[in-house]
C-alpha cells in the first residue's frame, strides 16, 4: 500500500472519530502550525455537518434531548459512520441506536419519537402517485364495491408504537420539554399530502382496516374490521368503513388505480 493511501486511510479514521488525532502526528509533514490543529479543523467540520443533518431530520428529538444531543450524535457517528455519497439516509439507524443508548433508560419513549420523525422524512421523499378523489368513489359501480381492492400511495407509513409518539411530537412542537408520558400501544399513520407531511393516530378498528388494505383485502373484508365485535351490526360496520375510506381519500392516502375483482384497473380514470 502506498504511503499516500495509508495517509488517506489514517486521516479518514481520525476525521470520523475512530482513532485519536495522535495517529497522524508522525504521518503529516511538519508545518508552521502543528499538524494536529490542522486535522482537528476537519474533524470538527465533519462532526458538525453530520450533527446538523441529524438535527434537521430529528428536530423534536433534538429538542427533547437538549444539551446532550451533541454527545449522542458523536456516539451515533462512531457506531454508524456515513456510508453513502448522499446524507439523505444517514439518520436511518437512529431509532435502533436509541433503543440501546443510555438516554433511553432515562426516557424510554425516545426511540418511538425517533421512529415517528424518520417516518416523516421517508414520507416527504416518497414517490408521487396519483390519488383518488371523492368523485372517483361515486363512479364505482354498486356491484364492484364488495370486491374492490384499494392501495395506499407510497408516502403512507403505518407505525406500531409502544409509546404515544404523536403526543410527544405535539408537546415538543408546542415548546414543552419536561412533559411526562405514559406507555401505551399506539398506531400512527404518516403520509404526505402535496408538499405537507402529516401524521395522526388510529383507533384499533381503523388500524385493523388499514392492515387489511395493505394485505390486499377486498373492501368487504375491510368492512369486517368494524364488525369484529360481539353483537356488531353489519350495516353500521359498513358505514364506519365507508366513512374511513372517504377520510383516507380526502387525506390523499388512496392510489387512484384501484382494482376490480378481476384485477383490472377500475373505471376511475373515466
Write the layout of secondary structure elements.
Layout: H1 3-15, H2 35-57, H3 59-65, H4 69-79, H5 94-99, H6 102-106, H7 110-125, H8 134-138, E1 157-161, H9 165-173, E2 186-193, E3 196-202, H10 204-214, H11 219-223, H12 234-251
Antiparallel strand pairs: 1-2, 2-3
Helix pairs in contact: 2-4, 3-7, 7-9
What structural keywords apply?
270 residues; mainly alpha; 2 domains; 3-stranded antiparallel sheet; 48% helix
Oligomer: single chain
Estimate the helix proportion, in percent. Answer: 40-55%
Overall form = elongated
| Biggest pleated sheet | 3 strands, antiparallel
Strand content: 5-15%
Q: What's the average pLDDT? A: 87
H-E order: HHHHHHHHEHEEHHH
The DSSP helix count reads 12
- Rg is 25 Å
Q: Please give the domain count.
A: 2
Cα end-to-end separation: 66 Å
Structural class: mainly alpha
Tally of strands: 3
The low-pLDDT segments are none
| Biggest sheet: strand arrangement | 1-2-3
Structural notes for this entry:
- The protein is mainly alpha-helical.
- The protein has two domains: 1-107, no CATH class; 128-270, no CATH class.
- Helices cover 48% and strands 7% of the residues.
- The protein has a three-stranded antiparallel beta sheet with strand order 1-2-3.
- Strand 2 and strand 3 form a beta hairpin.
- Helix 7 packs across helix 9.
Amino acid at each position: 500500500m502506498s504511503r499516500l493511501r495509508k495517509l488517506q486511510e489514517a486521516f479518514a479514521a481520525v476525521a470520523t472519530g475512530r482513532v485519536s488525532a495522535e495517529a497522524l502526528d508522525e504521518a503529516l509533514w511538519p508545518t508552521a502550525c502543528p499538524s494536529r490543529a490542522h486535522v482537528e479543523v476537519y474533524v470538527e467540520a465533519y462532526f458538525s455537518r453530520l450533527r446538523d443533518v441529524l438535527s434537521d431530520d430529528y428536530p423534536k428529538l433534538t429538542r427533547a434531548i437538549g444539551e446532550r444531543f451533541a454527545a449522542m450524535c458523536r456516539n451515533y457517528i462512531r457506531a454508524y459512520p456515513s456510508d453513502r455519497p448522499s446524507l439523505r439516509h444517514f439518520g436511518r439507524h437512529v431509532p435502533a441506536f436509541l433503543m440501546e443508548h443510555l438516554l433511553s433508560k432515562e426516557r424510554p419513549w425516545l426511540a418511538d419519537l425517533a421512529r415517528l420523525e424518520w417516518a416523516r422524512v421517508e414520507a416527504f421523499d416518497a414517490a408521487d402517485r396519483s390519488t383518488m378523489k371523492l368523485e372517483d368513489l361515486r363512479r364505482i359501480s354498486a356491484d364492484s364495491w364488495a370486491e374492490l381492492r384499494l392501495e395506499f400511495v407510497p408516502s403512507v407509513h403505518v407505525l406500531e408504537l409502544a409509546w404515544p409518539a404523536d403526543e410527544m411530537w405535539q408537546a415538543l412542537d408546542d415548546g414543552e420539554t419536561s412533559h411526562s408520558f405514559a406507555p401505551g400501544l399506539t398506531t400512527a399513520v404518516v403520509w404526505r399530502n402535496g408538499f405537507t407531511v402529516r401524521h395522526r393516530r388510529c383507533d384499533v378498528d381503523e388500524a385493523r382496516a388499514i392492515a387489511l388494505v395493505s394485505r390486499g383485502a377486498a373492501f368487504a373484508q375491510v368492512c369486517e374490521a368494524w364488525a369484529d365485535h360481539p353483537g356488531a351490526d353489519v350495516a353500521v360496520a359498513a358505514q364506519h368503513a365507508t366513512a374511513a375510506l372517504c377520510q383516507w381519500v380526502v387525506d390523499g392516502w388512496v392510489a387512484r388505480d384501484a382494482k376490480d375483482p378481476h384485477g383490472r384497473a377500475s373505471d376511475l380514470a373515466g
